[in-house]
Design brief:
There is one protein chain. The chain is built from twelve helices and 26 strands. By secondary structure, it is of the alpha+beta class. The protein has four domains: 87 residues, Peptidase S8 propeptide/proteinase inhibitor I9 (Alpha-Beta Plaits), CATH 3.30.70.80; 332 residues, Rossmann fold; 33 residues, no CATH class; 103 residues, no CATH class. A seven-stranded parallel beta sheet has the order 8-9-7-11-13-14-15, sandwiched between helices. The chain starts with a helix and ends with a strand.
């Protein structure tokens, strides 16, 4: 496996750069196995023998930056105490650009004559608002959250940005300080999060009060904002963590998949309560873009002023949420202002809203805030739920605040399994069980779901918020042969009032129940006694009475319960899978 990783890295690198000459050294990221005793010393030993040179260490994630030949890299990758070896390449780019036509009051970076609320701030319903709708202001933030912006720097003397201390930033670029920004991209993103409000200058950010927000800046691009390295991003994330960041905003990306990088996000998400947010990408196709497409990172798509998907915005299975990203006005280099477009611009809107909402509920975890943001987002998908273009919809500060106010931090999470990105993050999407986000809640239990039957909380939403009702029960379910190739047909649809056999599944071990080694469930047909002629409702109740459930179609088709009695291996058995 480790050899495969290094071979893949070398193959990819040959497409991106000149192959190394015989004996020439290149720079690699090497991750050792932290659970293997002494693993962290193995590279030190090889260095002492002159086989390689360690140029930087990231001990919290067990990664070293190493200079060595390709042949030596293959040897290192084959060691039992090494988890991964990846070539370090310059692969990251900023994901925003200066709009070719600038508003009159931002041309030549000139100072804006009056303070303006950019359309994006109103779209995400942050601040005081001025159109009669309900917004989430920053005045009641209990505990300001620290947002780490990984980008091209920060104009620290800009008239419309908080003035940060010397310790409030770091640069990974030699000779370039974090408090300057040659291309303006990072300053623009930071302004969307925290441009000062109430000063009669420029624009207003999502949190326009420097006493309600902590910013930390990590510079990973030089003045041309063209390429940043994988090592630079990994080092930048470590700087954010060491600075105590709650949220990391990354308006950059690459098509390069790094397993080491993905593991870093997972570790800090799980262990350090950090929420990672990144731009989905600007190629306008369905290719994954990283770091956004890592499952422990929120991938942000871009919409325009009319809330339509931007033509350049990436659409793939990892897109999770959307934000304003076309013609966004914010602070810029030279102490001025500019309009930029890209998923880069959408990302700080989401990061700012995350800080705004989390600041009101500081006891929530990163995962709980993430759940609240996606479940309260304004759906834009054609199916009204979640899709690859918009994710769960446009981030909405006010609705996220309301959700946590009503349900509490624990109440917003109904999925505690493996972390998956995109629409898979919340199993089932924004279906009937989530109508409580938009309507007054009256619980109506129905087959494990909760429906609601009241009007919308807010008049402004009622046109787009139909009356929420408990979902109707399906009319038919799949029945599946108890063992492969023993029935003709192997599976078919059945109406709920038909009579068929019953076999139950359990997710935990039960005495006498059978389990196949390749499956994660236990099956049984004697419940007690054999059930040969039951309706769907009766079958479902029989399993519940046995502290179990009906098996899914996939579990039955996979022979997970074959051989569990009552000669059902030759019969069609009720499954819990409806014919959707």
């Amino acid at each position: 496996m480790k050899g495969t990783i290094i071979a893949y890295a070398l193959a990819i690198s040959s497409c991106l750069a000149q192959p190394a000459r015989q004996g020439e050294t290149r720079t690699y990221l090497v991750q050792y196995k932290k659970d293997v005793r002494g693993a962290e010393n193995s590279l030190e030993y090889l260095q002492s023998r002159g086989a390689l040179m360690i140029s930087e260490r990231f001990p919290s994630i067990g990664v070293n930056l190493v200079k060595m030949t390709d042949n030596e890299a293959l040897k290192v990758a084959s060691r039992n105490d090494i988890a991964a070896v990846e070539l370090n390449i310059d692969n990251y780019q900023v994901l925003g650009w200066l709009d070719p036509v600038q508003p009159q009051d931002t041309q030549d970076g000139q100072r804006k004559l009056a303070e303006e609320i950019p359309y994006g701030i109103a779209m995400v319903r942050a601040g005081e608002g001025n159109d009669g709708n309900l917004y989430l202001p920053n005045t009641d933030i209990v505990s300001p959250k620290k947002v780490c912006v990984i980008d091209s720097g920060y104009i620290n003397n800009h008239e419309d940005l908080p003035t940060l201390d010397a310790t409030d930033g770091h640069s990974t670029i030699p000779g370039n300080v974090w408090s300057k920004d040659g291309c303006g991209h990072g300053t623009h993103c930071a302004g969307t999060i925290g441009a000062l409000g109430g000063n009669e200058k420029g624009v207003i950010g999502v949190i326009g009060d420097e006493t309600k927000l902590d910013l930390f800046i990590v510079r990973v691009f030089d003045d041309d904002c063209f390429w940043g390295s994988e090592e630079g991003l990994i080092g930048a994330v470590e700087e954010c963590i060491e600075a105590g960041a709650d949220i990391v905003s990354m308006s950059l990306g690459s098509t390069w998949l790094s397993e080491i990088e993905g593991g870093q996000f997972k570790q800090h998400y799980d262990d350090d309560n950090v929420l990672f947010i990144a731009a989905a990408g600007n190629d306008g196709n369905n290719s994954p873009f990283y770091p956004a497409s890592h499952s422990h990172v929120m991938s942000v798509a871009a919409v325009d002023e009319d809330e339509n998907r931007a033509h350049f915005s990436q659409f793939n299975s990892q897109v999770e949420i959307s934000g304003p990203g076309v013609g966004v006005k914010s602070t810029y280099k030279g102490g001025g202002y500019a309009s930029l477009s890209g998923t880069s611009m959408a990302t700080p809107h989401v990061a700012g809203v995350a800080a705004l909402v989390w600041g009101h509920f500081p006891d929530c975890t990163n995962n709980q805030i993430r759940h609240a943001l996606v479940k309260s987002a304004r759906p834009k998908a054609a199916n009204g739920e979640c899709d690859e273009e918009y994710g769960f919809g446009i981030v909405d500060a006010w609705q996220a605040y309301l959700m946590i106010s009503e349900l509490g931090c624990d109440g917003v999470v109904d999925n505690t399994g493996e972390i998956l990105g995109g629409c898979a993050f919340v199993e089932g999407g924004l279906g009937p069980s989530n109508c409580k986000n938009w309507c007054k809640e009256i619980t109506i239990p129905w087959n494990g779901l909760v429906g609601t039957t009241q009007k919308c909380d807010f008049t402004e939403l009622c046109d787009g918020c139909p009356e929420c009702v408990a979902p109707e029960a399906p009319d038919d379910y799949w029945i599946v042969c108890g063992k492969k190739n023993n029935c003709d047909p192997p599976f078919k649809n059945a109406k709920t009032d038909e009579l068929h056999e019953v076999r139950c599944c359990s997710d935990i071990s039960k005495p006498g129940w059978k389990k196949k080694a390749s499956c994660d469930v236990w099956g049984e047909s004697e419940l007690p006694g054999c059930k040969h002629a039951e309706t769907y409702e009766s079958a479902d109740q029989i399993c519940k009475d046995n502290d179990a459930r009906l098996c899914t179609r996939l579990e039955l088709e996979g022979d997970c319960t074959a051989g569990s009695g009552c000669s059902h291996d030759h019969d069609h058995i009720w499954s819990s899978t409806p014919n959707a």
